[in-house]
Structure formats: structure tokens, C-alpha cells
């Protein structure tokens, strides 16, 4: 009996030792491990940047991360878990910065224990797609789109639509609305636009990442909405411009606030940001007043703590964050259009420069004045 | 008298109908798997090259190297914890524990299998990633998967161990062997089929998990370095979910390729499990 008790004790010790050794062995690991020197080495050596957030900019941040890695050896990992995931992770200080398709409001910023900076990085667009015989390019206005999604216009040959499209043969067909069933920045920006162009929409539905749609079928992700539209004759839905162009979906030309008929494109999306950008970078482009701008343009933001010396972060790491932000709004922009994102116009870049310059480490600005 | 022939026909008819339903049910079990393999292979085919297996992901395309290695690393790390704890826990409940304690432990394990994986993932996030300060890390992911895998390994092992005849234990002890020798040499050896089955089920489940890993492993476009803390790890299920939702066709193809690789991995582990079972089957 004594031998088996001793054996039991030995077994218990071994079992406890394995994870303990692993844990304590792991404690020697520190952040900011230096990677092998990169082939091209301008300022800065290797290191890691961790980010998480909106899925809309995931492709462009990944591409930027890849190019930035080639230039500086810094490894950026951006995890696409949704805007709310990005905000949660930056609040918990698990990541260096978070990505969100909606900027933080003053109330939301109060929930953080330190001041933040937010700045827009790239622009995108949302388009209205539909399933009609012959795939015509329809002309629609904001109020008409609102009425479509409110369920007030029920047939394609309604006068509101035919009046705008004199040359198009519109069938006497029931309109089926397709919307997102999951929470999404795309829904947020689309419903924000509808709230800005339609009092009825604003009062009845409002805007959010997920709303109570008055009518229609829900699909998950852009693919889900596009799927419903493709399979249902007479369907209408909203998707990202990139999704529509990559998957060859027809989409409507729309009239913007200035009264011009605009076709959604990378240029018209950039043009939508040709408006007064506030110093804190917080502006939504829905129903922009820019004369040549696409009316349903969107921005996406990166969020970081203004004072970077929290939780034992090193100056090295703070410099990496600031340097990457600076690169992103300048050199990084060249990779946007190949992936169907629009570059920031010059006014937005200038506003962002000031925002990024406000990053501090122990009270001192991180970026030198010469940049 | 003619009534007898009629009744006989009904008997035969019922018999044939039942047989047909049995065959149909078996087919329904097999057809979806064949269909999934077919569609996934077809749509992932353009990305299924040697280059895909050795280059890492790039965000919209690239390869699967980091995801494949990451998946295997996370599951292997989880197994390092789950296997010994599961087997030893089962040994305890089947050999040493008083009956009431044993049944309480078994019930707890059953309940644990019912916990949604996303709850476990969030639990791992709140404790290990945030409170312990590990960040997105291999260890946080491994421990979360361990919690998922443990009950399967423990239950199968426990049932198999209980099936080892009591006479074998008595014989061993009466020959002078200790509890420990009896446990390892007699009971565990006899329970190898059950232990193997439980482990293979657990590995299969762990390979396909997404929700717990999203909260704990993060994702990385770079090959895993084996760092246990503060380093996110890539894995196949993330590629499948994230890339299928991107606008780009190259991303979709890679997602299907990742799905195909994952299914092949699960089938391989099943085959390994069967090989082990074949050599150790109780006759």
C-alpha cells in the first residue's frame, strides 16, 4: 500500500510539473522579439504588431502588412473578427490597435480608461444590386432606395423607379429585399446613409450594425446577400463595391446630394472624401456633399491609445505603431486600388498626419518633427 | 385459406420495405460525405498545388503552410495536456474512486461535452488572454482545446477500462502486483481500443474547431515559431471562414483548398486510429 501511495504521489508531481515547467519556461518570452534582419533595411528592425477588427479592410491590411514586412521586417498580424471584436480587444489591451468600420462616439470612448486616437485608413463603397432581366444599369436616388428597403415600393414598374429610368423595360414583378442577417459595418454604413436621406427611415429603422429590417430576407455576409439576389428574380440588396465588381453583379447609378448622377467606382469613392475632414478624423461619408462623390462611400478606422506607455509597452513598440500608421497613410495607400479600396484624398491624409503626430510615449511625441 | 397468402405477402413486403429503408439510411450517411469531398475538391482544385503547401497565407491568397503547421501545432499541444489527464482521470474513476465520486466525475465530463465551444473560447479569452496577460497565444489555444478534448478521451477510456474483466485485476493483484502495475499493464493495455477511439474522436473535433481558437489563438500570416505566449498562431478553420467571405475569387479557392486539407487530415487520423485498433482488438 505504501508503494502505491508513493507511486500516486510521483504521478501527481509529474502531472503538475509538465504544465508548470511549460508555463514558467514560457515566462522568459518577451514581446518585441527581433526577427532576422530584413533584406531591405531602412529605419527600424523587425518586431511584431498585433491588430484585430473589422473584416471589411482585412484584405488591404493584410496586403499592407506583407509589403511593410518586406520594407522593414515588422510582422503585422490583423485578425478579422468584426468591428466589435476589434474594439473589445483594444479595450482589453490585447492588441496594438483595433479596426472598426464605425468610429467610437464620445460615450464609447468614456468606457476606455485612457484617451484614444482614431483615424480613417481607406475608403470603400456600398452599392445596390438587383436581379432583373438583362441586367440593366438602373438609376436610383436615396429616397427611392429607402422606400425600396422600407417595403413602400413593392413592384419594379412602380412610377418612382420608371420615372428615373425612362429607357429601361421594367417588369411588373414583386420586389424581394435582401439584407444582412449578421451584424456588419456594411449594414451600419448603408442604414446610416438611408437615415440621412430619408426621415421615414431614420424614424422607423435608424442605423446600426444590425437593425430591424421592415421587410426582406436575411443572408450572412456579402456572399449571403449576393446569393439571395442572384437566385431570386426581382431581388434587391446591398453589398460592398469590391464584392459586386469581383463577382460581376450589376449595380445602380445613384444621384448624390449635389444632384449629380454618379457611378460607383474607386475614383468616385475617393472623391466622396473631398469634404471637410474634422481634426479628430471622425466623419461618415454617407450622403456626402462632395460634388463628384459616390453617395454611399464608407471609411474604416484604426484605433489606438494616445499615450503608448501602458502595460509595460516599450518605446520600441510605440515607435513601431507610429511608424506603421505613418507608412499606412502615405506609402501604404498605393496598394489600395488593386484590392478595390479607394485611397484617402490629400485632405484626409493631412488630417491623419496631425492625429498620428499626437501619439505620445510618456508624454513626449513619438514621431520626430522632421517627418 | 387465401387469407394466409395475402398475409404472407404483407410480411414479405414489410421486410423488403424495412431493408430498403436501412439501405437508404446507410446511403444518407455516406452520400453527404462524398458530396462534401467532391465539391470541396472541385472548388479548391486550382489552389491545390505543392506551392500552396509551402507558402504562407497573404490575406487574399497565398498558401496554407502557416495554417497547416499551426493547426497541427495547436492540436498537438492540446493533446500533450489532454491525453495524460484524460487517461489518468479515467484510470482514477475506474480503479480507485469510490462509486459516488466516480459517477460525479463522469457526469461532470458529460456536462462538459455539452458546453458550446464558443463559450469555452470566450472563457479562454477572459482568463488566459486578458486576465493572465498571455495575449493571443499558442498556450491559451491549446488549453482551451484541452478542455474540449478531455471529456471525450476520459469517457471512452473510462468505459473501456470498466470493460476489462475484474478477474484480470484480481489475478494480477493476487500475483503480487501493485495497483500501479495492474493499472498500466493490465487495465490500460486492455483498454487501448477505447482510449484510441476516444483520442481519435477528440482529435477530429479539435482539428475542426473555429470558435474557441478565434478568441485565443488570434491569427498569424507567418509560420508559427513555437512561442507559447504573446504570439498569435494561424490555423486552417480561420482561413476557411475568413477567406470564403472575401470578395476575391483567389480567396474563395484557397478557402476550399483549406477545407479539403482539413478533411484529409481528419481522415488520416481516423485511418491511424483504425490501424491501432486493428492491432489491439480484443478477441
Number of helices of chain B: 12
- Read across the widest sheet of chain A, the strand sequence of neighbours is 2-1-3-11-4-8-6-7
User: Helix and strand succession of chain B?
Assistant: HHHHHHHHHHHH
Oligomer: heterodimer
Radius of gyration of chain B: 24 Å
Helix/strand structural class of chain B: mainly alpha
Biggest interface in this structure? A-B, 46 and 36 residues
Beta percentage of chain B is: under 5%
Could you give the distance between the termini of chain B?
A: 50 Å
Structural class of chain A: alpha/beta
Mean pLDDT of chain A: 87
Sheet having the most strands of chain A: 8 strands, mixed
Order of helices and strands of chain A: HEHEHEHEEHHEHHEHEHEEHEHHEE
The dominant shape of chain B is: flat
Please give a quick description of this structure.
The complex is a heterodimer of chains A (371) and B (283). Chain A has 371 residues and is α/β, with parallel strands linked by helices.
Observed structural traits:
heterodimer; A: 371 residues; alpha/beta; eight-stranded mixed β-sheet; 13 helices; 13 strands; globular; B: 283 residues; mainly alpha; 78% helix; flat
Topology:
The complex is a heterodimer of chains A (371) and B (283).
Chain A: H1 2-26, E1 47-53, H2 58-72, E2 74-80, H3 83-91, E3 97-100, H4 106-110, E4 116-130, E5 139-140, H5 142-150, H6 159-164, E6 176-180, H7 185-197, H8 199-204, E7 217-219, H9 221-231, E8 235-240, H10 241-246, E9 253-255, E10 261-262, H11 266-272, E11 297-305, H12 315-329, H13 346-357, E12 360-361, E13 364-365
Parallel strand pairs in A: 1-2, 1-3, 5-9, 6-7, 6-8
Antiparallel strand pairs in A: 3-11, 4-8, 4-11, 9-10, 12-13
Helix pairs in contact in A: 5-7, 12-13
Chain B: H1 2-44, H2 50-54, H3 65-96, H4 99-114, H5 117-131, H6 138-163, H7 166-174, H8 179-190, H9 192-207, H10 211-216, H11 236-244, H12 249-279
Helix pairs in contact in B: 1-12, 3-6, 3-9, 3-11, 4-6, 5-6, 6-9, 7-8, 9-12, 11-12
